[in-house]
Each structure stands twice: as structure tokens, then as C-alpha cells.
């Protein structure tokens, strides 16, 4: 029945959601909470202050067009970062170092996908759990796709390794500074408190992602036509170049690339680097790689421009995704949605309220895909509600991070996810078919974990 169904382009789906958001601004009543500035200078919601706005006007129909350039402007940081990454990778790949290194890795793995999936997922999960890495993974997508392709896995499996890892990393994060520490700060908890419980559940949740991706990868390896993107030309990975031994110059290029990663980690942790600084590091890396390989400035520039140009669609997807949230904020219905979802929790008891918090945070992730942004909007509400229903604030924080982290890999308003899908050439609906069973498993396991946490008196 579905064979004749044409899958809309992801850009079409995102614009449809922008239109839906605009329609909701006419159907839902506008409202807002009072905002207060905390000790760190951040604006947070004041619980119990929600009030309707009778004189608020929905955005005009013209905003269906103007919101898109605004979304592109609001997401300019990650968009230009993506362009820089595309250009940098094109220059690095032109040296042949990546293809030669991948051939060496393939010989070591012996064509077995399980070790690659496990090691990759563990690395991505730990990076997200500790220092909140997400956008920083974008440079690694092309490498991971090529490696998976050589093992007869498709781009869906490659992206599954990365996204399942970082979803579990965010959802069970031990010390993620952008989610856990922000939420604990708003909830009035000691920073990093409760880390032992979160560390204990990390591996069980990671196992869910591992087996989901492994099952799919094995089906594709056994029958290439089983790939969800077998008929999508844009999603076909590039062919791995013929195996060649690494030259001294290529080994030096790889050494520079490898040394760049701990530099990025240090900068994020110790210096508070973000997209501007990270982009600067990759530009410097590009120049060094080009000079070491004697590429020549003109050829380096051409390669860089070609790599950046290939990610134009990705940049547009990121801007369109950001425009959805802007439309909801312009219509002043974002707080209306938050208030409507949070109010029923006050009538529930312990375990049910904790699971309800998870459901609400998961739903709100569609409207507020930013982890720290969601914390500042929802935790001022969830923390007092937790007190009322007899649930510890630590449980409320855990519900928040699970709802945020697990939904990051499925909501089309997440610009990082849409950017990754654009790089891989995977239509959103195809991705949805692959990822929704895993998200359902993670949310179910999260609900059980929260109920157990309430029973255990998790503090």
C-alpha cells in the first residue's frame, strides 16, 4: 500500500510544521508567565503567575515567509559552523589520509559491525553525558558514513550509531553542563548531585540503542534492499577509495586531526568555547592540513568551497527548524502550551507524576528543542510541582533530561538532527521509521526508571 507513496522532501515537512505553528497561534489563547532573573543572570519562569493575554494578536500571514530568514539568522552560529566543517573535511579528504586510515581500520575490525557500533555509541554517549557534545559530532559524520559503508551498512545505520549514543548520553547525563547542571541550578539542587544513580543507568540504556542499531545493520548487511534509503540517491554513501598504505604526510595529517579533538574538549570545558571558537579551530586545521600536504592555496580554496557548498541543503534545514520555535514564540502560545501540560501533574501522586513529567518534557521538546532553554522554562514549574506531589526535585531533573535527551533524535524541530539528516541525505519520514521504535523503548525504560527512583527515594 505504501509503495506508491511519495516521501515529501524534509524541507516540505518543515515548512508544513511552520504553517501548523502559525495556525495554532490563531487557535490557542496567548498567555505568559512572569519572568525573574536568577543569581546567574538567567531569566526563569515564576510558578503560579501564568496569565492570558487578551490583547495579543497572532502573527500576520506574511510571517509565514518572513519567519524563515529570521530562523536562518537565529541559527546562524550552527549554520556557518556546518559550512566550515564541510569545507574542512573536503580539504582533509583531498589528502587521501582519511580513506587510507579507514582501510586500515576495516582490516582491524575484520568486517564485523558489532565492535564498531559498540565503540562508536559508547564514545558519543560519554561525550554527551560529560561535556554535552552534540553539534561537535557533525564533523565526524562523513568519516562514520564511509566506515559503515565499507562494512556494507547504510547511512541510516551510521547516523543511528551517532544519535543513539548522544541521546542516551543526554538522557542519562552524569554531569552535562548544558542540561543537568542548568536544571539542578534552577531546581536549587547541589551541582552534580545524584550522579551515582545516573551513572548506573547509562550502560543499560546504551544497550537498548546498541541492539536496535545492530539488528538493523545486520538486516542491511544480509540484504542491501532492506535499507530504508535503498531508493534514495542522496543517501547513498561515497565509495571507499582503493586501499593504499599511509604515507608519512598522511600520518601527519591524521595526527593533526586527532590532536584537534582533545583541544576542542579542553576549550569547551576550560574556556567555554562554542561554535565561533570551534569554527576557528577547524579553519586553522584546514590551513595547516593544506600546507603540510603541499596542496596549494588555490586548490585548498576550491576544495573548501566545494565541501561547504555540499551542505547548503543542510543549512536550510537548520534554519527552517529554528523558524518553527520562533513562530510559536511570536504567537505567545509557548507558555500557554507549557502551562496546559504542567497543571494536571498537581493532581497526580508520586510515581504517576514522575512519569507524567517525563511525558510532558518529551512533548515540550518539540516546541523547545534547546536543552538549556527547556530547563529554564520548565524546571521552575516542575520543581514546585515535585514538592507538592511528594517527588524529589532530583527525580524532576531526571525526568527533564530524559524527555529532552531521548526526544532529541526524533523531533524535527531539533536543528542538530535536521542538519545531520541533511548531511546524510536521509528524508525525515524514512528516519522516523527507523528511530521511533528505539525512542519508544527509551521512553518506556525511562518511565520504569523514574518509578523506581521514586520508590528508592532518589535524592
Write out key terms for the chains shown.
459 residues; mainly alpha; two-stranded antiparallel sheet; 4 strands; 69% helix; 2% strand; globular; disordered N terminus
Class based on secondary structure composition and strand pairing: mainly alpha
Order of strands across the biggest sheet? 1-4
What is the chain-wise order of helices and strands?
HEEEEHHHHHHHHHHHHHHHHHH
Query: How many domains, in number, for the residues?
Result: 1
Distance between the termini: 51 Å
Integer-rounded radius of gyration? 23 Å
Biggest sheet overview: 2 strands, antiparallel
Overall form = globular
Total E-strand runs? 4
Bin the helical content: 55-70%
* Beta-strand content estimate: under 5%
Mean pLDDT: 84
List the uncertain runs: 1-5
Give me the number of helical elements. 19
Amino acid at each position: 500500500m505504501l509503495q506508491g507513496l511519495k516521501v515529501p522532501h524534509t524541507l516540505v515537512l518543515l515548512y508544513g510544521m511552520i504553517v501548523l505553528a502559525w495556525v495554532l497561534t490563531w487557535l490557542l489563547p496567548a498567555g505568559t508567565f512572569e519572568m525573574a532573573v536568577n543569581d546567574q543572570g538567567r531569566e526563569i519562569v515564576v510558578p503560579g503567575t501564568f496569565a492570558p493575554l487578551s490583547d495579543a494578536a497572532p502573527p500576520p500571514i506574511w510571517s509565514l515567509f518572513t519567519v524563515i530568514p529570521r530562523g536562518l539568522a537565529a541559527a546562524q552560529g550552527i549554520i556557518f559552523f556546518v559550512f566550515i566543517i564541510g569545507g574542512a573535511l573536503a580539504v582533509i579528504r583531498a589528502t587521501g589520509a582519511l580513506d587510507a586510515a579507514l582501510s586500515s581500520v576495516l582490516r582491524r575490525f575484520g568486517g564485523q559491525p558489532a565492535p564498531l557500533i559498540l565503540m562508536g555509541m559508547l564514545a558519543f554517549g560519554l561525550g554527551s553525558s560529560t561535556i554535552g557534545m552534540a553539534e561537535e559530532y557533525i564533523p565526524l559524520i562523513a568519516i562514520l558514513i564511509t566506515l559503515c559503508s565499507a562494512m556494507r551498512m547504510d547511512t541510516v545505520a551510521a547516523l543511528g550509531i551517532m544519535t543513539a549514543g548522544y541521546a542516551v548520553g543526554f538522557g542519562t547525563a552524569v554531569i552535562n553542563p548544558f542540561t543537568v547542571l542548568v536544571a539542578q541550578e534552577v531546581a536549587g539542587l547541589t551541582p552534580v548531585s545524584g550522579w551515582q544513580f545516573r551513572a548506573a543507568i547509562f550502560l543499560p540504556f546504551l544497550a537498548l540503542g546498541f541492539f536496535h542499531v545492530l539488528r538493523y545493520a545486520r538486516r542491511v548487511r544480509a540484504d542491501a534492499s532492506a535499507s530504508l534509503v535503498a531508493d534514495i540517491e542522496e543517501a547513498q554513501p561515497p565509495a571507499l577509495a582503493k586501499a593504499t598504505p599511509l604515507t608519512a604526510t598522511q600520518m601527519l595529517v591524521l595526527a593533526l586531526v586527532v590532536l584537534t579533538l582533545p583541544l576542542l574538549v579542553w576549550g569547551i570545558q576550560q574556556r567555554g568555547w562554542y561554535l565561533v571558537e570551534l569554527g576557528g579551530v577547524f579553519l586553522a586545521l584546514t590551513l595547516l592540513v593544506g600546507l603540510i600536504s603541499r596542496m596549494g592555496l588555490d586548490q585548498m580554496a576550491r576544495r573548501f568551497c566545494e565541501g561547504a557548498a555540499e551542505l547548503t541543503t543542510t543549512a536550510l534545514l537548520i534554519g527552517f527548524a529554528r523558524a518553527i520555535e520562533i513562530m510559536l514564540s511570536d504567537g505567545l502560545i509557548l507558555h500557554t502550551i507549557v502551562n496546559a501540560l504542567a497543571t494536571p501533574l498537581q493532581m497526580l501522586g508520586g510515581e504517576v507524576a514522575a512519569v507524567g513529567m517525563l511525558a510532558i518534557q518529551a512533548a515540550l521538546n518539540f516546541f523547545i528543542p534547546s536543552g538549556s532553554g527547556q530547563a529554564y522554562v520548565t524546571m521552575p514549574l516542575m520543581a514546585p510541582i515535585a514538592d507538592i506531589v511528594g517527588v524529589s526535585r532530583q527525580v524532576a531533573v531526571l525526568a527533564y533530561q530524559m524527555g529532552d535527551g531521548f526526544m532529541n533524535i526524533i523531533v524535527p524541530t531539533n536543528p542538530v538532527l535536521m542538519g545531520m539528516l541533511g548531511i546524510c541525505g536521509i528524508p525525515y519520514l524514512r528516519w522516523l521509521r527507523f528511530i521511533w521504535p528505539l525512542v519508544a523503548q527509551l521512553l518506556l525504560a525511562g518511565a520504569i526508571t523514574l518509578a523506581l527512583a521514586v520508590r528508592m527515594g532518589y535524592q
